[in-house]
Amino acid sequence: MDSKTSRLRALPSVDAVLKSNEAALLLERFGQKAATAAVRLMLSEARAELKAGASDPPSTAKVVERAFASLANDDRSTLRPLFNLTGTVLHTNLGRALIAEAAIEAAVAAMRDPVALEYDLSNGKRGERDDHIRALLRELTGAEDATVVNNNAAAVLLALNTLAGGREAIVSRGELIEIGGAFRMPDIMSRAGAKLVEVGTTNRTHPNDYRSAVNAATGVILKVHTSNYRIMGFTTEVAAPELAEIATEARVPLMNDLGSGSLIDLSQFGLKREPTVRDAISEGADIVTFSGDKLLGGPQAGFIVGKRELIAAINRNPMKRALRVDKIRLAAIEATLKLYRDPDRLAERLPTLRLLARPQADIAAQAKRILPAVQSAVGPGFSVQARECQSQIGSGALPLDTIASFCLAISSNSGGLALERLSTDLRRLERPVIGRLEDGALILDLRCLTDEAAFLSVLANLNLHDPA
Predict the structure, then answer these.
(1) CA–CA separation, 446 vs 360, rounded Å?
(2) What CATH code is assigned to 83-92+355-459?
(3) C-alpha angle 417-418-424 in degrees, rounded to nearest 5
(4) Taking a C-beta distance cutoff of 8 angstroms, is the pair 378, 384 a contact?
(5) What pTM was computed for the model?
(6) What is the mean pLDDT of residues 313-340?
(7) Per-residue pLDDT at 468 exceeds 70
(8) In this predicted structure, what is the pLDDT of residue 466?
(9) CB 283 within 8 A of CB 240
């Protein structure tokens, strides 16, 4: 008992620790209040360890070290950079599109200084924030006018509330989509104040279905691009040009929600062609809504383009203010859209397109190059093989189409539990590595691995679970 008491008395006081030379960096980094609380906690834990039988009290330096590690861990951002090796390029849970350097620079500049967000420099009067991107969107889509909100769900909500609030919105049953997070089109229509009128069946909708549904209470005919699924087999849908004719006959606007939305023909990059925004406008849509952070490759945003008088009405809606974007995102959006003016160098400058267009041969060479380092990191309990795999675009785009890629497939004779533990260990790295478990292996799809040196450096610090 005397020995235990003497060890407890040997613990330094909180004041002594904070006045030590070792604590200078702790105080400088985290401040007096946080440092004091952390040191007090570390001393309390040390006291409990000594009472439980620990042989020696920690030194002042060790207390400071533990306090620093605790505070640094708490101070680390939860939005941590990671390696997306899932094989899904536009992964919703991992932030979707990577932002182009030009957009990053524009956003930083907007954060650092005052900008003419809603100020007209030509006349010294109040301006409109949409003016920064309006001309660009008109140029790139062929629309008469355009506006922007914080995401495509907001774009759909705002457009429907403006065009069909308190009125009917006609839509095919085959287009009543649900996207991630249980977000359903009927729900957003209801919140927008529109009365849903379903026409046709899940797999077949005809022109007369729309014509029969139109009446004096109709506010809009809605077409929804089924970007995250396909109905196949005995199917019929009304194409956008014919639907535009029906809407014109009925004197109601046609709204086309493209979802992911693309400004260019993706087939030039070896992908299946998706309808572009310009296509939707040329086919007669009065309003088109689409995302900014999916196939467009920019920051999160929702674009609404179309007829000038309808965009003006949308901008007069009081909801617009609640859904608008700030100067930082607006600067990044403008810079991203400007990249589309130079289509010949777009894939070089826009990370999303660069990753989607990356040749399988390049990925295969990388897989074979880094395989020995990965095998060394995971140890003899696992076997690593380089093999072909298929990547996905993600975020609901081209759900049935994949891109030929290459991966490192990690297997274990110990079974699935060992692979789950390895997957956990990879997520615990300073910069987490996220793969996918598939067919008895942990798949690391390398399509999105652009910083090979950083990956190998992080992997060298892999600490595996105790096999037992």
Answers:
(1) 10
(2) 3.90.1150.110
(3) 90
(4) yes
(5) 0.88
(6) 96
(7) no
(8) 56
(9) yes
